[in-house]
């Protein structure tokens, strides 16, 4: 069983088990992930996603997304003389963050395998890629991370929102893992591994926000 993120073939460590699933941890990149034979089907995922009620008029959701938008502001201000191109990857049915960035002057595109399957937008380069509450859903994060790398322009920035693994004890009682569509769990060590391997500068402006800028 190779790691779904770094593809390490080293036997993973058993990390946790509950009534529904088994979780393993890659000793190379520290990703914690659900056993491959226990991943949800696309139908199960879609049923769960359709229950989400985030929309453009939801002030609470807009405030939540502000946790990503606020640390992006210095990057936006430093690039005022340039027309920035952005991609909201995994935007869901209501691309609220994309609309918020449009108001900041960023020319945005959206992509989502369930709600905005527009492969043509995956043939361009972007200065900003946002991935909010999406990366934990990836069954094969190696593929998506490789794609994001290919789509990112030189000195571009990837802004990720996902709750991070802290340790085994807290994972055992972590509500975040109970969502059946959450299957890949990242820690600071995982993002630092990717940054060192792939040439990024990484910062953690909030407990669930990561900024990764291509060197």
Main traits of this protein?
215 residues; Rossmann fold; four-stranded antiparallel β-sheet; 6 helices; 29% helix
Order of helices and strands: EEEHHEHEEHEHEHEE
Mean pLDDT: 94
Which architecture per CATH? 3-Layer(aba) Sandwich
> Could you name the CATH homologous superfamily?
Vaccinia Virus protein VP39
Structural class by SSE content: alpha/beta
Percent of residues in helices comes to 25-40%
The separation of the N and C termini measures: 32 Å
What does this 3D model show about the protein?
With 215 residues, this protein is α/β, with parallel strands linked by helices. The protein has a single domain (13-214), classed as Rossmann fold (3-Layer(aba) Sandwich). It is built from six helices and ten strands; from the N terminus they run E-E-E-H-H-E-H-E-E-H-E-H-E-H-E-E. A six-stranded mixed β-sheet has the order 5-4-6-7-10-9, sandwiched between helices. A hairpin with a 6-residue loop joins strand 2 and strand 3 (32-34). The two termini are 32 Å apart. The model has no long low-confidence stretch (mean pLDDT 94).
């Amino acid at each position: 069983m190779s790691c779904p993120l770094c593809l390490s073939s080293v036997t993973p460590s058993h990390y946790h088990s509950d009534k529904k699933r088994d979780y393993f941890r890659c000793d190379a990149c520290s990703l914690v992930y659900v056993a491959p034979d226990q991943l949800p089907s696309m139908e199960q995922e879609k049923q769960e996603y359709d229950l989400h009620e985030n929309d453009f008029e939801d002030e609470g959701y807009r405030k939540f997304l502000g946790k990503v938008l606020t640390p992006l502001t210095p990057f936006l201000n430093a690039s005022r003389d340039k027309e920035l191109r952005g991609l909201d990857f995994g935007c869901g049915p209501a691309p609220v963050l994309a609309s918020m960035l449009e108001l900041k002057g960023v020319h945005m595109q959206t992509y989502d395998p369930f709600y905005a399957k527009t492969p043509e937008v995956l043939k361009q380069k972007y200065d900003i890629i946002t991935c909010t509450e999406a990366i934990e859903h990836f069954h094969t994060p190696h593929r998506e991370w490789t794609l994001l790398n290919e789509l990112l322009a030189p000195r571009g920035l990837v802004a990720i929102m996902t709750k991070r693994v802290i340790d085994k004890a807290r994972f055992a009682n972590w509500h975040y893992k109970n969502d059946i569509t959450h299957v890949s769990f990242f820690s600071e060590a995982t993002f630092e591994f990717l940054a060192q391997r792939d040439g990024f500068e990484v910062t953690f402006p909030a407990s669930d926000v990561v900024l990764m800028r291509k060197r």
